[in-house]
Amino acid sequence: MRRIAVCPGSFDPVTLGHLDIITRASMLFDKVIVLISTNAAKNQASFTATERMLMIAKATEHLDNVVIDILDGLLVDYVRRVQAVAIVKGLRAVSDFEYEFQMALTNRVLYDKAETVFLTTSKENMYLSSSVVKQIAYFGGDISSFVPECILDTIEKRLKKEDHDEY
Ligand code: PNS
Fold first, then answer.
1. CA distance linking residue 119 with residue 106, whole number of Å
2. What is the C-alpha to C-alpha distance for residues 103 and 139, in angstroms, rounded to an integer?
3. Of the chain's two ends, which shows fewer C-beta atoms within 10 Å, N or C?
4. Is 92 a catalytic residue?
C-alpha cells in the first residue's frame, strides 16, 4: 500500500522552514501532497493560490514524490478523498503547540482514519514564519536566508513596499 501524507498550510509564501518539513515528510512517506489551504483566521493572502502553487512546484522540483494541490474546503474531506494516512505539520516553538494541538484533535473528531504527525524543522528554521518574511521583504530587507533561492525574486517583487507606493 502506498502511504500518502498531506502537508497542508497557507504557504503565503513558502519558506525554507516549510521546505524543510516537506523534504523530511518526503523521506517518510511514499507520496506527499502539499496542500495549499485556506486559513479562515488569516487576512487576505499576498499571493493567489495558483502563484503559491507555482512557487512550491519550483522549490520542490527535485523531490520526485511531492505533488501540489489547492483546497477550498475542509482538510479532512480532502484527506478522506485521497485516502491519506497522515496530516503532516511542522512544529516550531512552544507557541505553535496549542493551536496545532487543537487542530489535530478537531480533525481527528471529524475524521479518525488519518494521524496528525508533527515534524520539527532544523534549528536554523525554528523561528521562521511567512509573516515575518513578508514584513522584512516589505521594507526591502534581505530575505535570502529565509526563502528558496529559486523564488526569491518573485517574492521580493511582489512584497517590496516601494513597488506599491503611489506617492
Ligand atoms: O499555514 P497555516 O495557516 O498555519 O495552516 C492552517 C491550515 C490552512 C492548515 C488550516 O487552517 C486548515 O486546515 N484549513 C483548511 C480548512 C479546515 O479544514 N479547517 C479546520 C481545521 S481544524
1. 19
2. 33
3. C
4. yes
Cα separation of 66 and 50, whole Å? Answer: 17
Do residues 66 and 60 lie in contact, with contact meaning Cβ atoms separated by under 8 Å?
Answer: yes
Q: Which residue CA neighbors atom 11 of ligand 1 most closely?
A: 39
User: Which triple of cell numbers denotes residue 53?
Assistant: 502553487
Question: Would the pTM count as exceeding 0.85?
Answer: yes
C-beta separation of 72 from 38 below 8 A: yes
Catalytic residue (one of 31, 80, 92, 134): 92
- For residue range 30-52, list pLDDT tens digits in order: 999 999 998 988 889 999 999 99
Question: Given this model, what pLDDT does residue 90 score?
Answer: 95
Distance in Å, CA 36 to ligand 1 centroid: 9
CA count, 13 A, side-chain hemisphere, 130? 16
Fold assignment, 4-123: Rossmann fold (3.40.50)
